[in-house]
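Please check this:
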Amino acid sequence: MAKPSDLLLDTCAAIWMAQGAHLEPDALGAIDQSGEEGRPIRLSLITAWELGLLAKRGRAAMAQPPGAIFRAFLQLPGIVQQDLTADILIDSSQLPQPVHGDPADRIIIATARALDLTIVTRDRLILDYAALGHVRALAC
């Protein structure tokens, strides 16, 4: 049996996980398995940028500043920060077509591809991209 890949949360998945929202059974199982095996669940630095945009645009009610929320995510059991590299940023601009138009989602996709990660997401466009075989994703 192949070793499961580590997980990479997209921004919405991180928010739902932090709020204790309902997650799909497969995603919840993968998250639990990662914890049981001591494998990290990764959170991209681009999520900090997205939180700032959500707050500025008033698209998400936030009880704390975006930086505090991002740091709180990193305090959740098993969550680790996934840094960005120049190669990941460059790769995000050169992904196979058809690809998501959102720059943050492109960076998350490029990160997953570069590091052999599975994206945990509800984003239909990322899930559709995964269905084409360009990246692994798990609906949450």
Notes: The chain has a mean pLDDT of 91. The longest strand covers residues 41-44. Residues 7-139 form a domain with the Rossmann fold fold (CATH 3.40.50.1010). The first helix runs from residue 11 to 19.
